[in-house]
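Exercise 7b. Backbone tokens:
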């Protein structure tokens, strides 16, 4: 894979449409979903012209912008796994502190 096509793939993957989905409008309310997108990549080669590259991407929903009556509000997404992890960590710290 040549560097130009690798960079084009990275640019396409990190475009604004990856972070913000298409707006949804119903009954005068517009909702724009948003996600946290992270990526990383790398490449390399040797003196004989052999090489390669790669790119990884992670995305998760974080919330949505809600537009109603000319006002914009942010509605965060709740991730039950993260809430449970935070509660377990707090409980573990509490148990350690009581020792």
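Sequence design result:
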């Amino acid at each position: 894979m040549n560097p130009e096509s690798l960079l084009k793939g990275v640019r396409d993957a990190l475009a604004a449409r990856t972070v913000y989905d298409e707006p949804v409008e119903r009954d005068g309310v517009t909702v724009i979903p948003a996600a946290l997108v992270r990526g990383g990549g790398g490449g390399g080669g040797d003196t004989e012209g052999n090489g390669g590259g790669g790119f990884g991407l992670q995305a998760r929903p974080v919330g949505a912008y809600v537009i109603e009556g000319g006002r914009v509000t942010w509605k965060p997404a709740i991730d039950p796994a993260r809430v449970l992890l935070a509660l377990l960590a707090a409980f573990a710290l509490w148990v350690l502190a009581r020792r």
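Instructor comment: The first strand starts at residue 24 and ends at 26. The first helix runs from residue 3 to 13.
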